[in-house]
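Re: weekly structure request thread

Next one in the queue (175 aa):
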Amino acid sequence: MAGMSEGSQSLTAGASNRLNGPTAALNPPTTSASSGGAPTDPQASPPRSSALYTPTFPPAHDDFPAANDPLEAIVNRPRNPPPEAYNASRTVVTLPLQWAIGVIGVDQFREEETINRRILRSSSEVRQRGVAAGVPVDVLAWLVGAPATETVELSAEVFKGENKDGNTDDSQGVA
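Done, posted below.
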């Protein structure tokens, strides 16, 4: 910035940082030897390594499964989707995989690279005995990779039947 005083240069730099957002003010342009001393992009992300960026899983909550939960307690959770999973007319339930992982347990899942998502481990008790214990067939099929989607939409009819207390309830999920 030839011909500008030092004070003008800092004002110009400050205005530039305000235009580029709050991180630009905190991270002024730097130089690198590989770029011949030219400024590098402060917004550029460093190369990512899978060892440094582990996947995030659902946060622990009151119903978060413990490693020693009995199968009946574990399968009761995916049988009873939360009210917000239902559409406005209460006929379709949309389940995200992260919810399922959270209510069943992270330790029950593994990464399946061919479909690029997590599925129930073959050693999982939920996978081996889930249908017999009451997990809807369509839910279990999705949890083992068919369909290979992060969310699944199912008819609310799939979840009618036994409620959390073990009683028959044909209006489960209806407000």
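Helices lie at 6-19, 22-26, 71-79, 97-104, 125-133, 137-143. The radius of gyration is 26 Å.
Next request, please.
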